[in-house]
Amino acid sequence: MSKSRDPSQLILWRHAHAEVGLEDSARQLTNRGRKQAARMAGWLKTRLPEDYRLIASPAVRAQQTAGALNGKFLTRPELAVDTSATGILSAIDWPGCGGITLIVGHQPSLGRLAALLISGRADAWSIRKGAVWWLWQRAHEDGVSVRTIVDPDLV
């Protein structure tokens, strides 16, 4: 397959289960959340190429989830809680960047982003804590396809 026909892929990873707290951005993963993040990171590691981009929300729970992949990642404030779907796309330059971009973020933003890309409307779709939605778009083709949706409790 030629490079121009390779799909531009976007992986939406909702942060894993986090503790309840008053300061939202400082909430950390629970023991359950750390296990979810580790399982999902293990699943992702067997499927990701070396040259993927990982971008995370600045919230502690998203940073901890992204950290489960044991690699370098960028932190973008545009991925913080309640960012618009179009704001996220602009911040990560997708699909223009090509290759695979993995983002770690929050509800309802990730659900709205998935809805916008798949259906054309930023509706309130739900992505479970710790789950991955892997999307792709082929060059010169309209629309985004779902490659897979994986729940952390099933890996």
How are the SSEs ordered, and which strands pair?
Blueprint: E1 7-14, H1 31-45, E2 53-56, H2 60-67, E3 74-75, H3 85-92, E4 100-105, H4 109-119, E5 132-138, E6 145-150
Helix pairs in contact: 3-4
What does this structure look like?
- It is a single chain.
- This protein is an alpha/beta fold.
- The protein has one domain (3-154): Rossmann fold (3-Layer(aba) Sandwich).
- Helices cover 27% and strands 21% of the residues.
- The protein has a six-stranded mixed beta sheet.
- Helix 3 (85-92) crosses helix 4 (109-119).
Keywords:
alpha/beta, 155 residues, 6-stranded mixed sheet, Rossmann fold
What is the name of the CATH architecture?
3-Layer(aba) Sandwich
According to CATH, the homologous superfamily is Phosphoglycerate mutase-like
Q: In angstroms, what is the radius of gyration? A: 15 Å
Strand content: 15-25%
- Strand order in space, largest sheet: 3-2-4-1-5-6
Principal-axis shape = globular
Going by helix content, strand content and strand pairing, the class is alpha/beta
How many distinct folded domains? Answer: 1
User: Any idea of the CATH topology?
Assistant: Rossmann fold
Mean pLDDT: 93
Report helical residue fraction: 25-40%
For the largest beta-sheet, the strand count, sense and barrel status come to: 6 strands, mixed
